[in-house]
Amino acid sequence: MTVNASTKRPSRTELGRALMEGGALSSDWEPAFTAVPRCAFLPDVMWPFDMDAGHSVAVSKTSDPEAWHRYADADVPIVTQWDDGKHEGTEPGRESTSSASMPSVVFGMLRDLDAQPGHRALEIGTGTGWNAALLAHRLGVEHVVTVEVDGSVADAARAALEHCGTPVRVVHGDGFKGFPEAAPYDRIIATCGLRSIPLAWVEQSRPGGIIVAPWGTHYSNADAVVRLVVADDGTCASGAFTGPVEFMKLRAQRRPHVPHSDYVTGNVNDGDESSTTITEDQFVGGRFSPLGFALGARVPNCFSVVADKRDGARPVWFYGLTDRSWACVMFRDQDAARVWQSGPRRLWDEAYAAYRWWESNGRPGFDRFGLTVDRDGEHLWLDSPDHPVRRDA
After folding, report:
1. Contact residues for 376 (Cβ-Cβ < 8 A; gap 6+)
2. Inter-axis angle of helices 290-298 and 347-360, nearest 10
3. Nearest 5°: phi and psi at 331?
4. Active-site residue (options: 101, 205, 220, 238)
5. Cα separation of 181 and 34, whole Å?
6. N or C: which end of the chain has fewer CB within 10 A?
């Protein structure tokens, strides 16, 4: 659903119909959607993502209530906090740090969670409180606990939940640790991007319990939703990915800052030069490409940036996160791509090998990847747990 200043305000009924037709909203969650409006959990000033403009815009309920409600009832993400609350004014800040996710994403993840009336659920990342209210409507208020690391965000969500008659227990704390006081849980859902899923969530789940979380690598900001099922003996959880998303990251797992000047201290030509026959169309996928997911898995501790295209040339940069290794491949419309690399790691060589691995395995989509979490850590796999995804596999 596209929303801009000139479109007629969509109703919640229209949004619900679109979510049902798109497969995100299932019939068992439709009563919660009807009873719990997202608008009841949004602040008076918010920053929805305008699909036509391609960036976040400030909207005030006081000065433009029509636009405010139009965005509230649309399938768009809405930023509700910038820069960990240090932001002032109405212009977008530097980094979005709390938000209301797209309704299609919210209900898609709730569908994956398969929460049934009477289940006990733990939510990691309260945000506005809307997701917790939806869970409470279906499971019962007394069966839901939600944890939020930001005190001011937790307070606002708690007030909104109480005002809406769903006084869910809101805990101000580190969701990475779970919340053992109210364990065990039948369902755990995270509404923040993870780079590592803690064993604590597995240990606080019942055997057969389900954990749904956005997971990814530091290679990019993109995530994919993983649906883990806890083993009967409670020692591990394993399951497949259901599709791509992008969430704000768990604060303790944000990617380290990568200043370009700390890596490339002179000219790119100072790196070791080579070339490649791979093309931009082959290597640079879309924002939610499964290739990017595979590259992140096979090239660990690496951050990649696809720069804007200028005069027929597009540079793609790679930065090592454990040292100052870097690489750059310069794709051009006509000529072979030039490559420069520097540092202990040959990051382009690693990325190229990862691309070939992805191709040799039939260009797998997200649904062929899976994850296992146990006492030895995390294990990403392809098709089955006995086919690990690693560079020497």
Report:
1. none
2. 120
3. -80, 140
4. 101
5. 32
6. C
Give CA–CA dist 131/139, Å, rounded: 12
As beta bridge partners, residue 320 has: 302
As separate numbers, helices (DSSP H) first and strands (DSSP E) second, the chain gives 11, 20
Look-up: residue for tokens 């540079």? 315
Q: What is the pTM of this model?
A: 0.94
Q: Specify the DSSP class assigned to residue 193.
A: B
| Bridge partners of residue 239, in order along the sequence | 371
Is the model's pLDDT at 393 over the cut of 70? Answer: no
Query: To the nearest whole percent, how much of the chain has pLDDT over 90?
Result: 92
Phi and psi, residue 24, nearest 5°: -75, -45
First-last CA distance in the chain: 42
Q: Is position 60 annotated as part of the catalytic site?
A: no
Strand partners, 302: 320
Quick one: 153 exposed, middle or buried, by C-beta within 10 A (0-12, 13-18, 19+)?
A: buried
Q: Which residue type occupies 320? A: G
